[in-house]
Amino acid sequence: MNDVRIDPQFDRALREVLLAQVRTTVQRRPYKRRWLLFAGTLAGAGMLGGVGAAAAGLFTLPGVPTTTVLSSPSTAVYSGTATADLGPAPAGATGIEVELTCLTAGTFTFPDGANVTCSSTDPGTNGAWSKYVLALNPSTRGVTITTEPGNRWQISSSYISQVATAWEVNAKGETYGVEVPGRGAPDLLAVIATNGAKGYAYSVQMKGTDPASPEEAAKNLPKPQRKIPVYLSDGVTQVGVFMAPG
Q1: How far is CA 39 from CA 36, 60, 176, 180, 235, in A?
Q2: How far is residue 23's CA from residue 208's CA, in Å, rounded to a whole number?
Q3: Res 75 pLDDT > 80
Q4: What pLDDT sits at residue 210?
Q5: Which of 28, 125, 168, 246 has its CA 20 to 30 A from that of 234?
Q6: Cα distance between residue 205 and residue 99, in whole Å
Q7: Contact 194, 243 (CB under 8 A)
Q8: Class of the 8-163 domain?
Q9: Pairing relation of β-strands 74-79 and 152-163?
Q10: What is the average per-residue pLDDT within 150-175?
């Protein structure tokens, strides 16, 4: 029997992404799908993306941007709607990395409309913490968080520079890595198989099927999940399967 081995750096990176996914629940995840540190851009359970591994300083998955911090973090506590002033952006800055901690329950909205909601049981726990990257506006000097009067929150923010990385290419000429906003998906998309194996699934196989008729679409009936093969980056060596929506 063949002994399938996973690169240890790749294994650690994917584990970090999964741990990050657990840290940030659906309710607390900023709704807009931008670069969300420690949550990633997840198109479905087991699909990997975003910058969780890069933020942890581990092996970078193909397509994940590299991040350089350009300023010391500015940390303060506020109540209600307020603006955390970072001063002028340094040369080369492309965004603002924000760590937001809820000190009370409430919804806290970022300048781009993304928001974080904390329940009454979150303050004082890991559930109160979120990390997010805001695209830099040329006139930006800080981060305004909008929330109800009396809602308390702590923010730590820094100017950063992010540089996109390329997908890798295997011997068959196929690209592999993570989905990138604005660029789409590579030929082989990083996923976690049902058996816990880390690998890649063909993007074209991940897409669901369209309704066969208007009548079928109107019924909106759930479709059974599909088994999608999961391979190593070579696109040949199968290590498991991924259950994709119908």
Answers
A1: 6, 15, 20, 14, 26
A2: 28
A3: yes
A4: 58
A5: 246
A6: 36
A7: yes
A8: mainly beta
A9: antiparallel
A10: 94
Backbone φ, ψ for residue 138 (5° rounding): -55, -30
Count the Cβ atoms, other than its own, within 10 Å of residue 229: 16
User: Which tokens hold the place of 70?
Assistant: 């350009």
Sheet holding 168-169, edge to edge: 168-169, 175-177, 188-192, 198-202, 226-231, 238-244
**Where are the domain boundaries for CATH 2.60.120 in the chain?**
8-163
Residue 114: per-residue pLDDT: 87
**Does residue 49 register a pLDDT over 90?**
no
Cα 120 from Cα 78, distance rounded (Å): 18
Residue 169 — very low, low, confident or very high, per pLDDT cuts 50/70/90? very high
Question: Would you say residue 3 has pLDDT above 70?
Answer: no
pLDDT top residue among 243 and 81: 81
Cα separation of 96 and 215, whole Å? 47
Kindly provide the b/e burial profile for residues 153-172, where b requires at least 16 CB atoms within 10 angstroms of the residue's own CB. bbbebbbbbbeebebeebee
Element at 15 (helix H, strand E):
helix 8-23
Closest CA to 221 of 198, 245, 204: 245
